[in-house]
Structure formats: C-alpha cells, structure tokens
Amino acid sequence: MQMTEWYIESRHGVVNACKFGKHYERYLKPEIYEQFLTIYVSADWESNWRRMYATIDLFRKIARSNSNTSYNRRLSSNIPSSHRSF
Description:
mainly alpha; 5 helices; Aminoglycoside_adenylylTfrase; flat
C-alpha cells in the first residue's frame, strides 16, 4: 500500500486516498487499478498464491515507474514473477 501511495503522490502531489486505498481508483491509471484489485486474498489457498504473485508484479510495476524510490532490479530478478503449481 505504501508504494502505491508514493506512486500516486509522485503523479498528483499529496492527496487523500483514504484508508486501505478507498480512493485509489481516482488516482491510478485504469490498468494499474485493475491489477491492484487482483491482490486481495480469499479463502482458497491456490488463489492466495496467485494473488501473492500479483502483488509482487504490481509492486515491481509501480516501483520501477516511481522516480522517488530506488529499485533494486538485480534483487528483484531473484523473486519469481509467476505462479507455479505447488
């Protein structure tokens, strides 16, 4: 959530996106907001793994485009970016 808030502020200045991203839809590009919605967990174990990887992918996308952060691409390359069967 913090990276998402930094991303929003880097593009819109200081805004009130409310708790838990209530107003993220107002400030995120539609494709990023849609990806953000996929990270919420459910009761299904397999679904939660997919959502965890979706969270990693979203974090990468936002971190790379956020000029206010230093993003370690080498470290990131060691983290899987897609769901595997367990």
